[in-house]
Specification:
With about 375 residues, the chain is an alpha/beta fold. The protein contains 14 helices and 12 strands. Helix 1 crosses helix 8 and helix 4 packs antiparallel against helix 5.
Length: about 375
């Protein structure tokens, strides 16, 4: 299962956010630094309103959403690449996840220590980025020494890798994460074997105060983060209020709605964060529905019909005949598979069909 690791400076709300996205109290959210030492892990349910709509349409007895794993990692401090704080442990844990959700503090709270004293999210992002880049530079330098020896002996593969390492090193020396480096498919495959931290796709979570959630889009700190990460990381930032979500954990659905309405919002941003993290990992969802159950199946972006069928049962990948597909909007508009067929919205796709997020599918197999 693919995992998204929650990282950031100490006391930015990582553990509180982890508890929010996992709907648990698994991680200790404290007011002092390094309250998290060993990573907390939990399976997260991906919010998907389409499931309930399809379940109602099919009178399904069960609804099964998509899931993936979140990991709450210890806070990083300046100097982590040289072992400061819990640096070595932190970097090792980051290496193990498939994607990064970097939490950035945008709130003032005198009761929760701010290790940087002031709220400056762009500065905080640069601290994290610098430590990851420095750690990668060290890894690249060590690998270069090894490959230089092999290259001198005429090893063509070593020569090719050395050229790529120098290209990666120059990019890192400019303070840029490797994930933003323009690489060919072959180079990307080779870089994957370098096991670098900054190759991991990253999403930024702007953790704001309760009273700022309703006006988040006009918040100067939010604007600064969004502009910075778009320019320097070629990615996006979402707004969340871990503080609110933590308070909502014990409330009923009706009480939650009432509480949020009082704040002038419909949600805390956590659902959007989960969906964005899911897509960050390159995961997509197709749907099946019937009287027995309505289910969201997880596939990778670009998967074709056989691989999608294999998510249901490994035998289906080899025995696939065809896939009966209809987009979710078209099926809802039609009201049933039968009506969608009458309207020409239900398509028969073969083995080369690339499954799209939100496709509703019935597979035909030999099994």
């Amino acid at each position: 299962m693919l995992t998204a690791g929650i990282v950031g400076l100490p006391n930015v709300g990582k553990s509180t956010l982890f508890n929010a996205v996992t709907q648990s109290r698994k991680a200790m959210a404290a007011k002092y630094r390094f309250s998290t030492i060993e990573p907390n892990t939990a399976i997260v349910t991906v919010p998907d309103e389409r499931l309930e709509v399809l379940a109602k349409m099919s009178a399904s007895k069960k609804v099964v959403p998509a899931t993936f794993e979140f990991v709450d990692i210890a806070g990083l401090v300046s100097g982590a690449s040289r072992g400061a704080g819990l640096g070595n442990q932190f970097l090792g844990h980051v290496l193990e996840v498939h994607g990064i959700v970097q939490v950035v503090r945008l709130f003032e709270n005198a009761n929760i220590e701010n290790v940087m004293d002031t709220v400056d999210p762009v500065r905080d992002i640069e601290i994290i980025n610098t430590e990851l880049v420095l750690a990668d530079l060290e890894s690249v330098e060590k690998r270069k020494v090894k490959q230089q020896k092999a290259a001198k002996s005429g090893d063509k593969k070593a020569v090719q890798e050395l050229e790529l390492l120098e290209k990666v090193e120059a990019h890192l020396n400019a303070g840029k994460p490797v994930v933003t480096l323009d690489l060919s498919p072959e180079e990307k495959l080779m870089v994957k074997g370098f096991f670098l931290l900054t190759t991991k796709p990253t999403l930024f979570a702007c953790n704001i105060a309760e009273e700022d959630l309703a006006t988040a889009d006009s918040n100067p700190h939010v604007k600064a983060v969004r502009a910075y990460v778009q320019e320097h990381h070629d990615t996006s930032a979402v707004v969340v209020s871990a503080e609110i979500e933590s308070e909502l954990l014990t409330l009923s659905a009706e009480e939650r709605a009432e509480y949020l309405a009082g704040l002038g919002v419909s949600d805390t941003g956590v659902g959007n964060l989960i969906r964005e993290a899911y897509h960050l990992l390159g995961l997509r969802t197709y749907l099946t529905t019937g009287e027995k159950e309505t289910r969201a199946w997880t596939i990778h972006a670009g998967d074709k019909a056989p691989q999608a069928a294999g998510a249901i049962h490994s035998d289906f990948e080899k025995s696939l005949i065809s896939a009966e597909c209809v987009s979710y909007p078209d099926l809802v508009a039609a009201g049933s598979f039968a009506r969608a067929r009458e309207l020409g919205k239900l398509r028969t796709e073969g083995k080369e069909y690339v499954v799209q997020d939100g496709d509703v599918i019935e597979f035909k197999t030999f099994v």
